[in-house]
Amino acid sequence: MDTLSFLASIDTPDLVLLFWFAIVFELPRYLIGAIVVAVAELARRPAAGNLPDFSVSVLLVGHNEAAALDRCVHGLAAQTIARRRGRMQVIVVDDGSTDGMSAVARQLQTAGLVDEVMRVQPRGGKSAGVNLGLSRCRGDIVVIADIDTTFDDDAIDAFLPFFGNPRVGAVSGDLGVRNVSSNLITRQQAIEYLITISLGRRIADALGILSIVSGAFGAFRRSAVASVGGQDVEVGEDADMTMKLRRAGWRIRFAPEARALTHVPETMAGLIAQRLRWERGTVTIWLRKFRGILDPRQAIFRLSDVGALLDVLFFQLTLTLVFPGYVLWLWLRLGVFAVTVLGAVLLGYAVLDLLAFALAASLGADMRSAWRLLPYLPWYTIMQTVVMRWIRLIAIGQELVWRSSYRDPYVPFRVMSQVDQA
Amino acid sequence: MTNLDSSDVSAAASSGDPFLPTQFLVLGDGPVNLPGARFHSNPSHPYAAIVLAGPVDPAALNDVLDQSRDPAAPIADFGGNRGVRRDFIGHALDANSLTAMQQKLAPIWRRLTELPFRARHDERADVVVLRLAYSRDTAIEARFSADTVIEYPLQGRAPGLRRRLENLADLGALRRRHFARAHLCGRCNSARQLAYEACPKCGSADLTEEPIVHHYRCGCQEPESRFIAGRLLICPKCRRELRHFGVDYSKPGSVVQCRACGAANAEPDPQFACLDCAAVTPARVATVTDWYHYDLTTDGMEALQTGTLGRSSAPPAFVAGNTRACSPVEFQLLAAEQLHVAHRSNRPFTVAELGIGDPDVLRNTYGPASVDTALRRMAEVIGAMLSEGEFLAPTPTSILVGLPETTASEAAQVMDRMRLAISNAVPMPIDLVTKVREGDTATEFLRAS
Fold first, then answer.
1. Does the distance separating the beta carbons of B222 and A135 come in below 8 Å?
2. A24: which DSSP letter?
3. Phi (first) and psi of residue B331, to 5 degrees
4. Which stretches of A251-339 are assigned E, i.e. beta strand?
5. Can you tell me the distance from the alpha carbon of B11 to that of B15, in angstroms, rounded to the nearest whole number?
6. Which residues of B205-233 are buried (b: 16+ CB within 10 A; e: fewer)?
């Protein structure tokens, strides 16, 4: 009661002063997002009646994915585009697997579900595998997908209308969580995917600042990919190629109807390892490789690229770095009462997350499944604020100080050591 | 060695070597006259070896061997025959080659004489397989053949030979040693296959293989031809020179490109073209057959000595349909169970045996199938006389009978009635021997049987 009466007694300037972090950094983010999505939905035009007649190559690159390959390929065989004979090519690249993945791929090839199977030994890393597969792609559009991904039957066709615009170089698909009901950790990630991918990329798309086409499920114009030399050796190779396409002048879009489900980590250790890798990649790509975007003296200077970069730098790096300062500031100013204020901040985040969740769920195709996650929303807020924010901070610190991504086993050491020396 | 008669052995003995017989069956061109040997062309007359003096139809030779008293009799070929088993190969049948033949075949005759041929009618072909290995003192070796791909020279080209060898190995009479794996045509099952690599997409064999080059620094990974610039390797993506294998770049695999359809794959599809029917069978669906060498085992030797593959759990074919009949193995089990019951309930149980006194005399007099014929009729007669719960099993020279609730004296009376009935039913005079054992003595008797 003392806490409530204290909070009720303070005036607006003091309230702003106390909760400046949330009000300055977080509130605008949600507000801008809500407004942009509302406008975009109002301005949305119905899709054209006839699909552009593009041929599509689907590229599946994996390491030790024998168990998942069969389901993934059968999901592709069920695609609506597969009914249009000769319009879809499926290429599997076995990147140094030791679990018999290429044998499974050969069986699928025998069954007529895979067109070409490539295999390298030892593993060369995802980007090298993608580049090898790209050299065999013959479709106008190349869909790159993770092998543990499954697809809505019309997911690939949902990409194609965007490529009717010749300036579009890549289109991101919408990703959900397939193993959502496994445990609390996967449910938390399902809410996260709903808010950050289904809603977040919709907002970025509406603002023209979409900066990542996920390697788990995305479509690329083959000529665009060829123009930037395919993928480079990076831990976040998908974000890197997206930014290269942006810098080459290609537009990046988001297709919410191109929906796929992916398998997310089911343990806290797995989740932390994945996020540490992702966040380190963020530092490498945006802070090291593409920071020149902010330089107006560069030959190619675009405000949309600046917006894309600032979106990442601000919301992923700056917020993360400032938050510990805010906590420290609260502690120095209020002492133990800072815990109460942080509790109130957490409550505020929960309300904002509820709004974002409601918006994302209402826009999604499977609204009923989305709403089933509502009881787990407080858990999501706690995880994001108490766990994920600090994981991000650790990853940024590791990358800035030790360049940890250059030793990440995601890319073989013999390969990454060459990149690190470059 | 039942092809030899006493006169032949005595003639051999007079020559100083008891294992140089002198009577031979000549097939092909005949007649042959050479001093010191008697050649004839009548398969029913005794002979120590078959001499193929000219080309012989393998089927005709098989017919002769089927009727032979010892189907493992040696064969000497002077006619350039193929596809038949041959223990001696000569070019011209003269005195010198006859001597050479006799010396070559002497060890075989010795072993054949040491262990006379005996086999139950339905196991005759199986026992002959074992007997050939034993008498030639060798393993049954497989070898590649231009005609049949794989053959067993020791056995000749008998139909169903591989299946017979495998059955004998399953029974423990032979031990396998792997020789080769053959792929069979999906249409005609021939093993005469031409293996080749084909495009997995279109089946064409017009393929080229090229290494894949992985440039570590920029992640470019493409076929080597895209990197070759004169004598250098230049990355097609970043234009850097690749100078140091293992540091700048590696070759982590190869790509097989089809010149017919353009498809590229990590591996081609192995396929087989049949040289007999021209059908093409992909390796993944071709039936795989493993071929083995076979060694005679102690069980196999036991089978040769007893004349039957005693480990078979199936009753012999000639008692099929006889509801009282079972195999010797089943008889042992049933008898043991009945003995156990008899002990527990203090009731009698008797095992009796009605045997042919001198089976070799019967064979020599009435032919090799006579023992089996007699046993078949004996089993029929005894089976018809048995009551509920009583059972029988044939051995190579006798019929075992299990008689629950019967004392030894009662069993002796039953045996007398059976002997009388058998004498009336079997069309040849048989010296029948009867043994009767009751209770614990039956156990020892069964073990000996």
1. yes
2. I
3. -60, -45
4. 251-262
5. 7
6. eebeeeebbbbbbbbbbbbeebbeeeeeb
- CATH architecture assigned to A56-266: Alpha-Beta Complex (3.90)
Using pLDDT thresholds of 50, 70 and 90, give the confidence band for residue A365: low
- A276: distance to nearest CA of chain B, Å? 23
A287 residue type, one letter: L
What is the average per-residue pLDDT within A99-108?
Answer: 93
From the CB of residue A8, how many other CB atoms can be counted at a distance below 10 Å? 7
Q: Which of A155-159, A259-263, B149-153, B392-396 has the lowest mean pLDDT?
A: B392-396
The token pair at A239 is 């974000």
Q: Which chain B residues have a beta carbon less than 8 Å from that of A419?
A: 216-217
* Superfamily of B317-448 according to CATH: Reverse transcriptase/Diguanylate cyclase domain (3.30.70.270)
**B429-433 own/partner pairs: CB under 8 Å, 24+ apart:** B430/B356, B430/B357, B430/B362, B430/B374, B431/B356, B431/B357, B431/B358, B432/B354, B432/B355, B432/B356, B432/B357, B433/B353, B433/B354, B433/B355, B433/B356, B433/B357, B433/B398
**Of residues A94, A115, A229, nearest to B237 (C-beta):** A229
Other beta carbons less than 10 A from residue B166's beta carbon: 16
- From A308's Cα to the closest Cα of chain B, the distance in A is 24
On the question of pLDDT at B271 being above 50, the answer is yes
- Which residues on chain B are in Cβ contact (under 8 Å) with A116? 201, 263-265
Query: Tell me, what's the pLDDT at B1?
Result: 41
For B327-337, what is each residue's pLDDT tens digit?
777 788 788 88
State residue A323 phi and psi, 5-degree precision. Answer: -55, -45
User: Would an 8 Å CB–CB cutoff place A132 in contact with chain B?
Assistant: yes
Q: Which of A95, A123, A132 is the best substitution to test chain B (most B C-beta atoms within 10 A)?
A: A132
Q: Taking CA atoms, what residue in A is nearest to B255?
A: A118
Q: Kindly list the distances between the CA atom of residue B327 and the CA atoms of B87, B121, B167, B308, B334, in Å, as whole numbers in the listed order.
A: 36, 15, 17, 12, 10
DSSP assigned state of A112: T
Scanning the structure block, which residue is given the tokens 């000569």?
B90
User: Is residue B393 a contact partner of residue B403, using CB atoms and an 8 Å limit?
Assistant: no
Cα angle B57, B60, B61 (rounded to 5 degrees) comes to: 90
Please check whether residue A216 touches B, CB under 8 A. Answer: no
> Whole-angstrom Cα distance, residue B408 to residue B350?
6
A136 to B264: CB separation less than 8 angstroms, yes or no: yes
Domain with CATH 3.30.70.270 in chain B: 317-448
Confidence of residue B368 (pLDDT cuts 50, 70, 90): low
Model pLDDT for residues B177-219, shown as the tens digit of each residue:
999 999 989 888 888 899 999 998 899 999 999 999 999 999 9
Using the Cβ of B263 and the Cβ atoms of chain A, whether some distance falls under 8 Å is answered with yes
Flag whether pLDDT at B20 surpasses 80: no
B253 vs A422: CB contact, 8 Å cut-off? Answer: no
Is residue A132 within 8 A of residue B220, CB to CB? The reply is no
